[in-house]
Amino acid sequence: xxxxxxxKLNFRVGTIRGSATxxxxxxRRRMRAYRNRLVxxxxxxxxxxxxxxxxxxxxYFSACLEPVRLTQLAQTSPDKRxxxxxxxxxxxxxxxxxxxxxxxxxxxxxxxAEHLAGCERCRNLVRVLQEDSSRxxxxxxxxxxxxxxxxxxxxxxxxxxxxxxxxVAFGFIFLAVTAVGSFQLRAFGWGVLNIPQRVVVFGSLAxxxxxxxxxxxxxxFPGSKHLVSPGWLxxxxxxxxxxxxxxxxxxxxxxAFVSNGLxxxxxxxxxxxxxxxxxxxxxxHGAILSPxxxxxxxxxxxxxxxxxxxxxxxxILNRYHILIWHMGVVLLSMLGGLSLGAAWERIGTWRKDxxx
Length: 356
Prior knowledge:
By secondary structure, the chain is mainly α. The chain is built from 15 helices and 3 strands. The protein has helices at 25-47, 54-65, 72-75, 78-84, 92-100, 110-118, 120-129, 140-151, 163-185, 188-192, 195-219, 233-248, 257-283, 291-313, 319-353, and strands spanning 10-13, 16-19, 69-70. A hairpin with a 2-residue loop joins strand 1 and strand 2. Helix 6 packs across helix 7.
């Protein structure tokens, strides 16, 4: 195969003129990128992976040739082009330039035909470009099946409310259920907490509630960006509250540890479950892509509702009582939401697959 360098090709990029070997730095970079794409195209043919349908190949070539418009060969007369290559044969790179500068592969110059006769790779390239794309078009039956699959489950939808509206709804649910629980169970725990403990405990609960509410609102809008991964946020909030309680409270003697703990666990879940149901009434209006993830976040939010009610009500400040029974409300709520979300995803998969 000839390896001698071809003639110096002038080209035009926008209003910048240059040459393949001289020119400005921008022109040289674009020409180098163009050459690399052509080399990649030949490597595909050598590896036998040139299995794109013609329509895709045409798009590929359009993307490859868009940055650089070669004009010299297209504007050169056949006689002048013959004088350019007099006394020698064309190289593979020059064949690529010639193909790129023509809208049709018919009527190639004699020198190009001579090169194609002796170069199998260039000959295969021309053959691939000349293939008829109509035979690769999908059948009418296939198009009908695709259309039926796409239009079968389309239903009219309503636009989503602003994210701020959902945040307000989540905050209202938190405050309403917490207020009802504190009123029904009495605020015995509020009186035994000193001011620093109140600030730390309820400030961290409010921060956790805000983070989980923001995560739920973002999950209702596909494509939203998350400050923290929604998969790790509920776990992070639970771990932070657990470490905070371990540092803030001290171990104390508690005679009826199990009976008192079960009472607190039952009371916390009795308000976390209604809070979760109210959250579901709001979440069902969003475009949720991962029910399992969203349900786990909602479960953690509902668990914070039950934990807040317990912190206001329970007068027991034993560290282990709070770590096991109070934090247990958040953990069980989160696991319950995760289980329900996983079951919902499984049911959706069965429906889509026709219970196969």
